[in-house]
Amino acid sequence: MNAFLSILRGFPRYLWTGWGAVASILLFVALWELGHQRYGDLVLPAPLETLQRVGQMLSSQGIREDLLITLKRAIWGFLICVGIGSVLGLAAGLFVTASVMSRPIVSVLMGMPPIAWIVLAMIWFGMGDLTVVFTVVVASLPIVFVGALQGTRTLEGHLKEMAQSFRTPLPMMFTDLYLPHVFSYLFPAWISALGMSWKIVVMAELLSTSDGLGAALAVARTQLDTTGALALVVMLVGSLLLIEYLLMEPIKREVEQWRE
Amino acid sequence: MARVAELRVEGLSHRFGRNDVLRDIDFQLGQGEVVSVVGPSGGGKTTLLRLCAGLLDVEEGRVSNRFDSFAFAFQDPRLLPWEISLDNIAYGLKARGMGRRQRHRLASDIGLRFGLELGDLKKFPKELSGGMRQRVAFARALVIEPQLLFLDEPFSALDVGLKRELQRLLVKQVAEQRTSILFITHDLMEAVRLSDRILLLAGDPGRIVQGFGIDTPREQRDDAFVYGETAQLLTHPQIVQSFELSVNA
Questions:
Q1: I need a surface site. Which of A44, A72, A208, B5 has the fewest CB within 10 A?
Q2: How far is A162 from chain B (nearest CA, A)?
Q3: What is the pLDDT of residues A200-215, one digit of tens each?
Q4: Does residue B74 sit within a domain?
Q5: Which residues of B touch A258 (CB under 8 A)?
């Protein structure tokens, strides 16, 4: 509760520090404009035109629905992978054998390209929500799993001994020792998984569904509608940036003040 | 009958795998007494301390600790990086179930006495210097007013000034609260300055080969006394042998 209030209090100041980020994004847009003037509409439509298109899309029923569908899939995939990955990782971290055994499996999962998962999922589950959500989950799961695993494995014996020397009761061991430590590994893993989910969801949709932003992107491609495609990309990246910088980053700053 | 507060170690031996670390250790520590164990590095001193504090299981022999409370100060500060100094100091009080307001009051009182400033109490360990961290660690050990204090070379990484200051605070604590201390060090001067009795732990396997008593009251031990006494100890044959001091050095 305290942490929540402190995040809210710090929010205006945090936003104010965003000017630097805005400046660098504007610089990027300027380069984009330069590219547009050099190569023309078909290759690189003007930023202004793209933004107008985003505005149009957001006010049209169809794309708004697609956006919601995509968000829903990404968030479901993310939540499921966070749930399963964290629990499995923590459990594996508690046992030496489990953590040693899981390492090669994680390497295999990490090495498997998401596109391969999409193909398999299409065969297993057909074309639809399940395929997309499944792909998001398998692709981001290893990241969360490894974060949780490292969190439990790396707690220093030194601190545990200190806690023992004060005869720390078990509940306090959890609240003061284990949780803060594990969380400091888990949270960054969650953020990476979120970014991963966002990217995978579009790719999976593009190949396997007829709705969602990914499908809209596929349509834009067949019609050689570069402006439309760019507008969709802007929407996707924009929504990820909003979630990451308005939600995740302030939380991260609050809970990780103690980090070096 | 009132319980006699004392730490009694009888026939204590310990091994790690095939390594004999400690063999047949006997000594006792009464209330208000400061006993230091000196000996070369790697001679099993820390193991002895951990056995006495119950951080390691006793396998052979007996350790009976009849003090009501004890605290441990380690060689490194071992602060929780995610808690501010104030909460780190209050850690032991929290473990005893003391309420937030009260433990913060006690913690900030002792923190200030140990040379921390109000601003430091709100800082995370990463923002403090090494010396400040060790002050916090000391405050954390002493705020619970332990009857027995285990010290594992807590001064070894500190500069001379800070070392002296913390030692002075410690001497005061012993005098005022009759705190007993079991103190581990490889620094003879430190031992001479602080202890009533010095036990010499020879290495490989660790065993106590000699005890020295120092009768001069702690408050009267000035530098000249400490230097003189240390110089005298350094010529003692057992010490020469244990520390492998070469005679010509």
A1: A72
A2: 7
A3: 999 999 998 889 999 9
A4: no
A5: 81-83, 124-126
